């Protein structure tokens, strides 16, 4: 619950602060739709006018979090909180960035940071009890963290029930995320289908189903295409479902359809070239057109990755695998080494680099 102030002056200050640091709805909508680069440009313009713009700092924190730049996300969110201590969203982003950092550290250091991340998430929900984002973060944290770090499935279930009271569709999405984290593909599918029944006009639900069915565990190209098209019917300006269709066409050798889809996707959202990445990745897996795969992956590397999309290290990894297939060992080693340098915690690239060196 939000703190109560006995003094009228304190209450007036709180009202002033909440209006002065009201979220930029345009930037918030852009980030919710996956357009982090566009939101960042808004924040940078605002900071040029006012270096102490808490909302702009929060936007940059959230963009950094989406791009897995955890130190930046922590720094921006801490600065936002210094200016606007009651900004729930900034506390939530700080909690998420700390939680993700903790995973990459040793037990002792990571435990302290994880506990702080949990505390920030709980404060975010206390400041705004209707924040579904904060409740979703806490549900994920409680599911993943050991008891010594404040985790627990009972706590996670309570958070999901809290979300259910606010938005049933989002509660099913939260359950799907929990199942995904446990590698429970059947459970993830079950909850996503429930979410689609409750909220058929939710882009994220349709897009996640499309990606579920393009994956190796539930590989069903017909269903993947069905849900990808349903997502695009809801929002043709987002790249994720174009990427699913591009991967399908690449796997099926539908070159004319693939070229047309990639062109359409780039016109719809030139800031996010993930359709090229997914098409290239599919071609690396099938080995059907190495030159095309190389061209697509290099296209993806030609600009900064959009928030929430595959890190450039993943593209270097795929290029390394492709170069190994073509017998270009030195080039392959360089690509795999770049991937490992960019993603030191990504085990597949490290394993492939080790095998390539030994071959």
UniProtKB/TrEMBL annotation:
<feature type="signal peptide">
    <location>
        <begin position="1"/>
        <end position="22"/>
    </location>
</feature>
<protein>
    <submittedName>
        <fullName>Tetratricopeptide repeat protein</fullName>
    </submittedName>
</protein>
<dbReference type="InterPro" id="IPR019734">
    <property type="entry name" value="TPR_rpt"/>
</dbReference>
<dbReference type="Pfam" id="PF14559">
    <property type="entry name" value="TPR_19"/>
</dbReference>
<feature type="repeat" description="TPR">
    <location>
        <begin position="54"/>
        <end position="87"/>
    </location>
</feature>
<dbReference type="InterPro" id="IPR011990">
    <property type="entry name" value="TPR-like_helical_dom_sf"/>
</dbReference>
<keyword id="KW-0732">Signal</keyword>
<keyword id="KW-0802">TPR repeat</keyword>
